[in-house]
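Archive entry. Fields below.
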Amino acid sequence: MKLLKAFAFCFALLATVGARAQENYPDHPVTFIVPYAPGGGASALAQIITKGLEAKLGQPFVIEYREGSATVIGTTAGSKAAPDGYTLLMASSAMSTNASLLDKLPYDTEGDFAPVGLIADTPLLMLASNSLGVRTVQELVDLAKSKPGDITYGSAGTGSTHQLFAEQFKKVTGVDMRHVPYKGGGPALTALLAGEISVLFSDPGPALQFIESGQIVALGVTASKPLASLPDVQPLNQLLPSFQGSAWQGVMAPKGTPEPIIDKLNKALNEVLADPEVIANLAKTGKIATPMSPSEFAEYFKADIARWRDVIASAGIKG
Amino acid sequence: MDLIGHLQLGLSVAFTLQNILYCFLGVLLGTLVGVLPGIGPVATIAMLLPFTFGVPPETALIMLAGIYYGAQYGGSTTAILMSLPGESSSAVTALDGHEMAKQGKAGPALAIAAIGSFVGGTVGTLCVALFAIPLTGIALKFQSADYFSLIVFGLVASIALAHGSVLKALAMVLLGLLCGLVGTDIYSGMQRFTFGYYDVADGLDFVALSVGLFGISEILRNLEAPETPRAISKIGSLWPDGATVRKCIAPVLRGTALGSFLGVLPGAGATISSFSAYAIEKKVSRSPEKFGKGAVEGVAAPETANNAAAQTSFIPMLTLGIPPTPVMALMIGAMLIQGINPGPAIISSQPNLFWGLVVSMWLGNVMLLALNLPLIGLWVRLLSIPYGIFYPAILVFCCVGVFATDLNFFDILTLSGFGLLGYVMIKCDCEPAPLLLGTVLGPLLEEYFRRAMIVSKGDLSVFITRPISATLLLLAAVVLALILFPLVRRQRETVFVE
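PREDICTED_STRUCTURE:
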């Protein structure tokens, strides 16, 4: 009995230590895994966010780039980390599409993570080559219907968000376009400029200057309202009501991370996202700061996985 | 504003105390990471990126650019002295450079590499200043069919890269092709030869592969000998004699032209240009049999070409905002974080940044020449450490360097595996260069061919109806004729002897 009491005492002590640890969180540097290569849009976003979190939480946030394999390598590392709030993962739409694209993932997309909060919505622009001679979505649909299979669309590779948006467009409008994959969004944009492909869903950042100079035409945007930098470009879901979804980035923790830590992180993240300077910096790269609570983000994530599962199944894409 | 005015503006930016300091820091760090086996400019720039946030954008880019082209100089030092190419673009330098070092001519080899790099770098920089905008137009005209023909041209130009058995060389190219196939097929999204490992879904790590193949295998071979037959005991006089210099003038000029042109094209510019430059030298040489056995032309041409290409690869990055190489992707990242959107507008909207960078690149090349020639003694002294201490250090550097790039343990396994393979290859008299070529060019050839076919709906005539592609294929045919011509000549000679 004495022994039992001693155990109970120890447990109680441990629990208070645990609670103390949560109160003091964070008391040492936090690792932020970015499953992309340094230098791209994701890395710029991670820099902005971690800088803000450092200021709010008083500890350094160290970015660890674990690129490769369509984010699977970095995401796996995030799923295997200790659930103590000291390792966080930058999640993105690739995580929800991979759930349907890839057969045997080394992690459980819906079961291994605790959503912390959404960072930003990254609308993609639907672009057309100038030489195609279309100015609106309707003109593109008419042209594609008159020449089935003649129009090509580019992507950052099979299974990329770029491709899935184009496939959704095909599904919604009933047109046929041929897929031409590239190794990344950059080469695909160059190909659009060179006239090798006719249509491309692209990140706004690198494309803005070519739209302004009239080398390519923006037909629409995958957001619920027009981008500040392109007020005349209509949201696709207004033109085609069943066209949904967007690309996004968010923060996830490993499953089992204590709720108080998740809440503290979410509060800090949402404060960072409310900062006008952060909002402006995100807008410069075509991103819209979109704060959410952990439960809202969890719902959002679930719906996103389901949406892409439908598109992937109907387009017959398999990784 | 004319060129003089632009250069004056550039001078006023590049020659501030802060920018000179950062430029020096960049080229010094670049040389260091180039010299240290395995650690390349990508990992270094990625690690140093956060340190550049506090300085003005032009200063940040000046330093990062310095690391990049500085590493091209440093890379040749290790390639020559230890047969350890830090990057694919210096792999071909190791072939003749290391042979020269073994013959006690390390000094002239290093000097020629440094001088060639300087000439290539200077002319490349001048090309950036003069032709950035028109060349962008050319780069934008390149479509998949044209890239395909360019690679065919490169392959034809490099076909006889290895000396010795053609059959073995062909086998190595095929093995390289197989290695290059590992990864995700971008057309179908299917995984090829990955055996379910996500670590290789993007393909085998190129640095791990080449360092293993060239470097680790060399260490294994050196360990075999009882008494340290370490490659370099003395470097000889640093200054090449008149005959050597005369031999190098034409290769340096050809390398400059080739590198400057190929660097502008997105893709494996620096690598393809050093391989092609080597092959072209071998073809135009009156004594091609000396290649691979210490021909100084085999050092001069590729070293010049890869530096020229390193400079001109800034053209697509600065003018289109589209990165042709991973290093350029990092540079774009540095600009984005600084709030600058790279693109065609950058030259007019940020003239300070553009012209400051151009002038600093030339300044950096001068610094590198000064840094490299006198400091060669220091690098060599590094090698006089007893081999028993030295090789574990090299192994550690290789592992750290390979691992640091993307923190993937699988890359260490790749390094070890290809180290062993390289050793077996040495035992079988097989050359590593064709394997590397197959690994680099094979997948590109496939990618562009398949894409050209998708776009043209399977019409093969696209390769001859597009003017750029047709011209390149014609050039390939000419080079093929050049390859065959000495063969014909030699056969005639044999006939005469008989």
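CURATOR_NOTE: Chain A has twelve helices and eleven strands.
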